[in-house]
Specification:
single chain; alpha/beta; three-stranded parallel beta sheet; 5 strands
Length: about 90
């Protein structure tokens, strides 16, 4: 599956990471490294995470991408923020 994705990688405009805790998924960093290798800094990254973890192995995701890739963080916990109607 990775090889198939690489064939289409040059056409990618965004990645949406979700499910469990995407920041601790090996595939997440594999994609980030490939984006960096190809200098695809225009690709938009969207996260659905509660940020229960911000590190994976020796990588801190908040520092990894700041100078590398523009992040747009969509945090799942915001849906349950105090004062919001969560019915």
């Amino acid at each position: 599956m990775w090889e198939q994705m690489l064939e289409s990688f040059e056409h990618v405009e965004q990645f949406y990471f979700a499910g469990g805790e995407p920041i601790i998924m090996e595939e997440h960093y594999r994609i980030l490294k490939e984006l960096d290798k190809r200098k695809m800094y225009h690709v938009r990254l969207i996260y659905n995470t509660n940020f229960s973890r911000t590190t994976f192995k020796d990588i801190d995701v908040l520092n990894y991408g700041t100078s590398l890739i523009r992040f747009r963080l969509e945090q799942a916990w915001m849906q349950k923020a105090p004062g919001r109607n969560n019915a």
